[in-house]
């Protein structure tokens, strides 16, 4: 299956279960940007990052190669959604204050994407790419999830190896800036965490039986403490 359609089958689950990102992350990026006129959210999926970027920028262009993913993105007066590959976003030269790719850049043709970023960024503009790592939660529930992660480990698609190395091996041809350590810390119903895990590419092909077994043993309304670290690279164009 091509990247453009890899997530079509679970698009509704992405929209329902995929978490947003910490406010502090967006506030940091907005402070670095040369102005707040335009942000481009590349590989937006169902728009989780785009909606939050719209709080800080006058306008957000949110692109994705999957029309099905975009069909689940919420309408917003400051967001323009459109179907486009990462390497051909259709932005004007030097238009973007920020180019963001949330949980996406490891899937891109980066040899084509990075020149597009350089073309679209205004002088001093910022590129930021980030992704969630594995969620952790305490207690027996957390221990069982850790066992599931071990089962899933051999079955992740090859591009996700970059995520599991915290993007350290990600080629990144920009003047790199320090990235603070961000994490999402929240209290969720157990069902939300299980739904998020069920949307992963590895879980779609392996581990479903184990996930169902965990779900049978857990009160879906049980509140759980969740901590999800974020790996991130930030550069200036």
Characterise this structure.
This protein is an alpha/beta fold. Helix 4 links the parallel strand 2 (59-64) and strand 3 (79-83). The chain has helices spanning 11-17, 23-32, 48-53, 67-70, 110-120, 139-152, 161-164, 190-198, 201-205, 208-216; strands at 38-42, 59-64, 79-83, 96-102, 121-132, 175-177, 183-189, 223-236. The chain starts with 10 loop residues before the first helix and ends with a strand. It has one domain: Vaccinia Virus protein VP39 (Rossmann fold). It contains ten helices and eight strands. Strands 1, 2, 3, 4, 5, 6, 7 and 8 form an eight-stranded mixed sheet that branches.
CATH superfamily: Vaccinia Virus protein VP39
Structural class: alpha/beta
Helical residue percent? 25-40%
- β-sheet strand percentage: 15-25%
Spans of 5+ residues with little confidence (pLDDT < 50)? Answer: 1-5
Rg is 18 Å
Total strands:
8
Using the coordinates above, name the CATH class.
Answer: Alpha Beta
Largest sheet properties: 8 strands, mixed
Query: Could you give the order of the helices and strands?
Result: HHEHEHEEHEHHEEHHHE
Q: What's the architecture in CATH terms?
A: 3-Layer(aba) Sandwich
Oligomeric nature of the chains: single chain
End-to-end Cα distance, whole Å, is 33 Å
CATH topology: Rossmann fold
Our count of domains comes out at 1
Principal-axes geometry comes out as globular
Q: Please work out how many helical segments DSSP would assign.
A: 10
Mean pLDDT: 92
